[in-house]
Amino acid sequence: MTPATGRSRVSASKKKLWYRVHILLSSMFLGSTILYAAASLATTKASSTNGNASAPAKGSGSMGDALLKTMLGADALRSNPPAPSTTPRSSSSLPAVSNPAAPGRSLQQPGAVTTPTQLAQASTFPDVQGSWAQTFIEALAEREVIVGFPDGSFRPDEPVTRAQFAAMIRKAFQRPATRQAIDFVDVPANYWGYTAIQEAYRTGFLEGYPNQVFQPNQNIPRVQVLVSLVSGLNLNPTADTASILNGLFQDAGSIPAYARTSVAAAAQNQLVVNYPDVALLNPNQLATRADVAAFIYQALVNAGQAPQIPPTDVAARYVVGYEPVATTPPPLTAEQVAALRQQYRLPAPPIVEQLRRLIGGNSSITTPTAFGADRGQAFIGGGFQERTRNTNKADGVIAAGIGVGDARKAVGVEGVISIYDLFGDDSFEDGGISFKIHRQFANDIAVAVGVENIETFGEPDPGYSTVYGVVSKVFPLGSRTTAGFSPSVTASVGLGGGRFRSVPDIEAGRDSVNPFGSIGVRVAQPISVIAEWSGQDLNVGASIAPFENIPLIITPALADVTGNAGDGARFILGVGYGITF
After folding, report:
1. In 3D, which of 549, 437, 446 has the Cα closest to residue 490?
2. Whole-angstrom Cα distance, residue 353 to residue 376?
């Protein structure tokens, strides 16, 4: 057996062994995808995603590593992004929130390291001097509606969560309750923002999502802030909604249907502040701390609780329809209030697209994808092939892997140890270690580079390593259908040496690179179908998540369906399980 860097030719006695191990390993490997699935089970009800398929000529644990890493659906490892319709301007650590909570409840958000006595209580901040929103921010800070960070900054471009917004609403408006509170399933009584969320709901400013879900940590878009303020202040447009919106905003067409009447009312009552272009609402963009300060201050002006900013203030040029404050409309009847509550009720949150990735099938069988395991994620798996390539003998493999890092913020690193040749005299004696470095981007795109069998033990065949690079992307096929199912396609394309080389190059011992790729189509909530090119063979299969709340993935497949090896297609089976900690 030659080392990974020294082998130039595969001996005749090893070829058959290489063929049979290679297929088996690839099919058995547990996709790192499942890792995310286990994490989701503690908080949300998961759905399935894309699948994987393939199996090249028998090789070392490289193929097994590939299948193990992809067994549970590559795209499941993508961290849950914000709602697809929003675009954050920046992100950083969350500030502590000035929110008088009920006795025994924390005054800070989870993860904050400051105490209430460490909060910046100043009404001026060095990072808002000269800002377009300085007047709004300092006025609300003086009223203690908003506070700064412990370092004395305000961070006007940070996003605002729904819980933070509820805390601001509670401080800004003292209005009587219009309905009974409800207990949201994702806001426990000891949550820092429990009291603020309850009060914002009782006073009519905020609504929950269906099934008593509030999503307190979801960043709030600009349009939801405006809908909330209009609802809490009981405002109505006095003219045709379409005429108002089309006359004021160049992007009126991007305002969601449920919010159009509310936005028209907000604009007529001078609640809307658009920076840097007063004619662009950007309704689905995440609201920044500066945006929210401006909206709340203008709502206070409308309610007669704050003076109007003077026309000489730079902020005045960004207030839509700036003019003297309109007369407060007459109070609405109870029937009108009830009708408005129904009209402004938010649709189901777009997190269904995130939930669908938590437990799903693979998008490849034996070839790697660009999605991988991150910190706190691990996986185990096993594979079986009833007949290895050019033999009549069965074989098997087991493997385990773990992830470190964060692929969305920097990079994730996934490591796998594999044990090959489970059936025979040298069972559990041969194996290898592989790793993959992966990075995830917006729009469901990921890239990765990896080395399979960078280190080996025993006498695996072949003993060489495989270096590769791969790009993956998920393509949605349509909007959410029944039961939250969203059909999609996951495609991966890569180049690699080692086991991805053509059979003639492997037999001649020539160093070369060869393309490989896979396509997984999610055809039902728990099922994906897969086709892939391994560099040598065409493989097809299916990936199945049989249990809704258990991160278990089963991937049956047929290797070499075109008979490239000359001995017909071969059945392979992989089973994987994900773990989070």
Report:
1. 446
2. 22
d(CA 149, CA 425): 65
Is the confidence at residue 224, as pLDDT, over 60? yes
Beta-bridged to residue 416, according to DSSP, are 401, 434
CA angle (113, 114, 118) in 5-degree steps: 165
- Sequence-distant (6+) residues with CB within 8 A of 129 are none
Contact 552, 380 (CB under 8 A): no
Contacts of 168 (CB under 8 A, 6+ apart): 140, 145, 146, 160, 292, 296
CA separation for the pair 337, 119 (Å, rounded): 38
Token pair 């108002």 in the structure block, residue: 244
Cβ atoms 204, 236 nearer than 8 A: no
Q: What is the pLDDT of residue 243?
A: 94
**Residues ≥6 apart with Cβ < 8 Å to 56:** 22, 23, 26, 63, 366, 367, 499, 500, 534, 535, 536, 537, 539, 559
CA distances from 249 to 229, 238, 281, 282 (A): 19, 17, 6, 9
Higher pLDDT, 301 or 41: 301
Enumerate the β-bridge partners of residue 384.
396, 573
Task: State how far the Cα of 244 lies from the Cα of 222, in Å rounded to an integer.
Answer: 18
CA distances to 262, 348, 382, 574 from 538, rounded to whole Å, are 55, 41, 22, 17
Residue 195: in which H helix or E strand, if any? helix 194-202
Q: How large is the angle between the packed helices 222-233 and 162-172, nearest 10 degrees?
A: 30
Tokens 């921010």, located at residue: 137
For 525-569, list the strands marked E by DSSP: 527-533, 538-544, 552-559
Beta bridge partners of 417: 400, 433
What's the pLDDT tens digit per position in 378-424? 999 988 888 877 778 888 889 999 999 999 999 999 999 998 878 77
Residue written as tokens 């503690």?
A: 42
CB 401 within 8 A of CB 417: yes
Span 295-306, average pLDDT: 95
Number of residues written out for the chain = 581
In terms of DSSP bridges, do strands 445-457 and 412-420 run parallel, antiparallel, or are they unpaired? unpaired
- pLDDT for position 525: 79
Asked if residues 446 and 370 have their Cβ atoms less than 8 Å apart, the reply is yes
Contact 58, 26 (CB under 8 A): no
pLDDT (tens digit per residue) in 114-158: 333 334 455 789 999 999 999 999 999 999 999 999 899 999 999
C-alpha radius of gyration, the chain, whole number? 29
Q: How far apart are CA 487 and CA 262, in angstroms?
A: 33
- Measured distance CA(236)–CA(230) in Å, rounded: 8
- Concatenated DSSP letters of 308-374: PPPTTSGGGGGBTT-SSPPPPPPPPPHHHHHHHHHHTPPPPPTTHHHHTTTS---S-SSS--S----
Residue 543 DSSP label: E
- At 199 the three-state DSSP class reads helix
Enter the pTM of the model: 0.43
